[in-house]
Write a structure and sequence with these properties.
heterodimer; A: 7-stranded mixed sheet; 6-stranded antiparallel β-barrel; globular; B: alpha/beta; 8-stranded parallel beta barrel; 18 strands
Chain lengths: ~270, ~300
C-alpha cells in the first residue's frame, strides 16, 4: 500500500550529461518497494512544478534503508531535483505500481533496456534469484552509458550496444537479443525503454515463444489510479486484436507499469 | 468542534443537499473514492462528485491525456468511465460505507442520454445529480449545451422533469456571460450551480511541433485558473438566488475561503487531489482554522461576505 511520506535526500550526483542519481533515505520505501515500482515526487513545495514526477526505483538497500532513483534532467521538475542538497526533504508518494513478476520458476532471465529505461532493471537483477541473469542494454552513444559496472556485477553476462557504434556493438540491442534467442532459451524477458523498442521486443519474444514483461511509460497525473490520465491500450483477452470491443484502456500507474507483453497493444 | 467557547457548525444545505461540511471532492480527480481511501478517511469529506458518467461505458481519449502548464495542467481524459449502470451496481455500495454525500456527475452525448441517465439515477441511492454540460474533451455532445443560455435552459429543463433529486448544474467558463448562463440554469429549475469547469487550452511540444495532448486541446485546471474562477463565482452568486458551489484551483483552506467570500456556499477540490491525496482534508482543516481564528460559528458567516472596494 502506497503512502505519502517525507524522504530525506542523502546525495545527488551527475553521472553523465543530464543523467543524475539521487540517493534517498526512506524506511518505508526501502522496506516495501519491489522491482518495477516507482515513486511520484513533488519536486518543489509550490506551483513551479505542479504535478509530481514519476521515477522508477533503480536500486534499493533494504539493510541501510536507502534507495536510488536515476533520472534525466529534462524539464522544470527534474531541474529542481538536480538542485536538491543532502539533508533536504522530499515529498514522495510510493511505492506505486505493480512491479515485475519475479517468480522463482524463472531461472533463466534476460533484462533488456534502452537508454534511461535501463534503471529499474538493475533493481530487478539485484533482487532476482534466477540462476542466469543476462543483461542487454542499448544506448544512443557511449557518453550516455550509465551503471555499466553495476549491471556487470549483478548480471551473469552483460551486452551493450550503441546506435552510433561508439561503444559495444554497433546497432540495436534488440538485434543482439534476437540473435541470441536462436541459440538459447529464456524463461522470461523483462524489458524497459522507449515504446518503439518495447514493441520490437514484444514481437521478438512472441516469435521465439518466450514470455515477456514490459514496463510501460505514459504521462501521469496522480500516479495512484484516481485520475485515469495515464491510459494505455491493452487487450481484454490475450488473444484479442486491436479492434473495437476487444481492447480497453488500462492505466500505467495502477494496472502497470509492468504488463505481459502479449496484452499490450502498441500503436 | 469548539472554537473560543462557541461550537463551529460546518454543515451546509445546498439546494436540498445536506452536507456535514462544505468540502466536496470534484468530479474527475477522485474516481469513485476507492484510490484515496489509502490516504484519507473518506468520512472527513462533505461529499464526493464522482467521475463523470455516461450512459454506456466510455474508453476515453487516446493518450497523452495530460500536459503540465504554468501553475496548472491540461487534461483530455475524455470521460473514461464504466457507465451509469456499472456505477450504480459497483460503486454506490462502496461509497455508502461512508457518511458522505454522493453526487452523480453525468455527461451525455445526446439530449436523450442525459434524460435516460436522469431517470435511471432518480431510482438510485444517490444524494444529488450534477449536470456536466461543459466537458471540453468530448468531440460531440455535452459541449454543445453548456455554451449558451438557451442550451443550458433546455438541458436543465429536460433533466429537471425526470428527477426530484437535488440538481446541480456545472457551468463552463468558456462563455460570454456567466450571469446569463447562471440565470438560465436557475430559471430552468436547477437547485444549485457549480463552477467553474475547465478552461479550454493547448500546449505545444516545440520539438515535435505538435500539441502535447493527443486530443490537441484540453481542459485547464489548477491554481492558474483560480482568479478567473473566483471572479465567475462572484458574478454567478450575484446573479442568482440558488446556492453556488465554487471550484477552480483550490489547493488549501485559504483558497476555499476566497470562494466562500465570493458567494459560494460550498467548494469542490479537484486538481489538488492528484498532487496531495489529502487535499480535501487539508482544505477542510484550513477552513476550520480560519473560522476558529476569526471566531466564526458557521459557514454562513463567510458565504458571500465579500465587500467590494468600489
Amino acid at each position: 500500500m502506497a503512502k505519502q511520506i517525507m524522504d530525506t535526500v542523502l546525495r545527488v550526483e551527475e553521472l553523465t550529461e543530464d543523467i543524475y542519481r539521487m540517493t534517498m533515505s526512506s524506511e518505508f520505501i526501502s522496506k516495501n518497494a519491489l522491482p518495477g515500482q516507482f515513486v511520484n515526487i513533488k519536486c518543489c513545495e509550490g506551483e513551479q512544478a505542479l504535478l509530481r514526477r514519476p521515477v522508477s526505483i533503480c536500486q534499493l538497500d533494504r539493510g541501510n534503508g536507502t534507495y536510488d532513483i536515476l533520472f534525466q534532467k529534462k524539464g522544470t521538475g527534474t531541474a529542481l531535483l538536480t538542485c536538491k542538497k543532502s539533508g533536504d526533504r522530499l515529498d514522495v508518494l510510493g511505492p506505486l505500481g505493480n512491479g515485475f513478476d519475479l517468480n522463482e520458476k524463472y531461472q533463466r532471465i534476460a533484462v533488456v533496456g534502452g537508454g534511461i529505461g535501463v534503471f529499474p532493471l538493475l533493481f530487478l537483477l539485484q533482487e532476482s534469484k534466477a540462476a542466469y541473469k543476462n543483461a542487454y542494454l542499448g544506448f544512443r552513444s557511449a557518453d550516455l552509458i550509465v551503471l555499466e559496472k553495476e549491471f556487470g556485477r549483478s548480471a551473469t553476462s552483460l551486452k551493450i550496444a550503441t546506435d552510433d557504434g561508439s561503444y559495444g556493438t554497433h546497432g540495436y540491442i534488440t538485434e543482439i537479443l534476437k540473435k541470441d534467442l536462436l541459440s538459447c532459451h529464456y524463461d522470461m524477458i523483462y524489458a524497459c525503454g522507449p515504446t518503439v523498442m518495447l514493441s520490437t521486443i514484444a514481437r521478438i519474444a512472441d516469435e521465439s515463444g518466450t514470455q515477456c514483461q514490459v514496463s510501460l511509460e505514459q504521462r501521469m497525473g496522480c500516479g495512484f489510479g484516481a485520475c485515469l490520465i495515464c491510459a494505455c491500450k491493452t487487450k481484454i483477452k490475450s488473444d484479442a486484436v486491436d479492434k473495437d470491443g476487444q481492447w480497453h484502456y488500462s492505466h500505467v500507474c495502477k494496472d502497470g507499469p509492468v504488463f505481459n507483453s502479449k496484452d499490450v497493444i502498441f500503436d | 468542534m469548539k472554537g473560543q467557547g462557541h461550537d463551529i457548525d460546518m454543515a451546509v444545505n445546498i439546494g436540498g443537499l445536506q452536507l456535514k461540511n462544505p468540502v466536496i471532492a470534484a468530479s474527475g480527480t477522485f474516481g469513485f473514492g476507492r484510490e484515496h481511501t489509502g490516504f484519507i478517511d473518506l468520512n472527513r469529506l462533505g461529499g464526493i462528485s464522482v467521475k463523470g458518467l455516461t450512459l454506456e461505458q466510455r474508453q476515453g481519449n487516446k493518450p497523452p491525456r495530460v500536459a503540465e502548464t504554468p501553475g496548472g495542467m491540461l487534461n483530455s481524459v475524455g470521460l473514461q468511465n464504466p457507465g451509469v449502470r456499472a456505477f450504480i451496481r459497483d460503486e454506490i455500495p462502496f461509497l455508502r460505507q461512508y457518511s458522505i454525500a454522493i453526487i452523480a456527475n453525468i455527461a451525455g452525448n445526446t439530449i436523450d442520454e442525459y434524460c435516460q441517465m436522469a431517470e435511471i439515477l432518480s431510482e438510485a441511492d444517490i444524494d444529488a445529480i450534477e449536470l456536466n454540460v461543459s466537458c471540453p474533451n468530448v468531440k460531440a455532445g455535452c459541449m454543445v449545451f453548456g455554451n449558451t443560455a438557451a442550451g443550458i435552459a433546455e438541458i436543465t429543463e429536460l433533466v429537471r422533469k425526470r428527477t426530484s433529486k437535488p440538481l446541480i448544474v456545472k457551468l463552463t467558463p468558456n462563455v460570454l456571460s456567466i450571469p446569463e448562463i447562471a440565470r438560465a440554469a436557475e430559471g430552468a429549475g436547477a437547485d444549485c450551480i457549480s463552477l467553474i469547469n475547465t478552461l479550454l487550452g493547448m500546449a505545444i511540444d516545440i520539438e515535435t511541433r505538435r500539441p502535447i495532448l493527443y486530443n490537441n486541446t484540453g481542459g485547464l485546471s489548477g491554481p492558474a485558473v483560480k482568479p478567473i474562477a473566483v471572479r465567475m463565482v462572484y458574478e454567478a452568486a450575484q446573479a442568482v438566488r440558488i446556492p453556488v458551489i465554487g471550484m477552480g484551483g483550490i489547493m488549501k483552506g485559504s483558497d476555499a475561503i476566497e470562494f466562500l467570500l465570493a458567494g459560494a456556499s460550498a467548494v469542490m477540490v479537484g486538481t489538488a487531489n492528484m498532487i496531495y491525496p489529502d487535499a480535501c482534508v487539508r482544505t477542510l482543516e484550513g477552513i476550520e482554522q480560519y473560522m476558529e481564528s476569526h471566531s466564526l460559528t458557521s459557514i454562513a458567516d463567510i458565504s458571500g461576505k465579500l465587500e467590494l472596494n468600489t
